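User: What would this chain look like folded?
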Amino acid sequence: MTKTSVFPFAVPEVSNERVKLVAFDPDRHCDTFFRLSSPHPEIYAHMPMVAPNSATEFKSRFYSDSTTNILSFSNPQSFAFAIIDKTCLPSTEDPEGELAGTVSFIRTSPTDLCTEIGFIVVLPPYQRSHVATNAVGLALQLAFSIGLCRVHWLTSTTNLASARLAERMGFEKVGMIPWHMRFVKGKLCGKIGNGKDLPPGSDPEDLWRDTLSFSLAWDRWDTAAKAMTEKAMAR
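Assistant: Here's the prediction, encoded as structure tokens.
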């Protein structure tokens, strides 16, 4: 099945010595992504997205005609990358290394020249390594190089690792959004909520997420954050 992204910006491949970001190819990447992620549903604990039931179902999310699904090629606000770990041997997924996860531009506005870095999944074998910082760093470098002026990062108040990563990469916390996301039947889906009592009349199986909001604009990138990002990527 062939379908091309309708993302409004030209997005080239970007890489350094350790990591490469390429356009996510469902036919090439979904099988391995599902194989490595399916034993770890906790990957999705803080996300509105639920874990796919199969590689085929995961592929269908990319080929969906939905203009709101953050992975769909039909969504003009989103662009999904495969993260390739170039410190590994060539694989069936990529001649320069192994598939280590995914990251996306989401909620992108060509009018306001902004995007959000989201759906960040570093697969378990590659966690606590150079992969996350280099993937996010490359995504930031790419965002500003294609003319965007502001990048957002939203994460659950309970996802401390994500918040720490944002700050290491130069983002500034701008606030907290209470009751930001409702995880419908979240208790049954393995979601992690905000730990608060549910609003009156709620389904007892629901959970809610409070969200920390971070932002990084072009002027801070040029004066301070770019150097912070490069330092984090070099570790």
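The chain has five helices and eight strands. If you want, I can go into more detail on any region.
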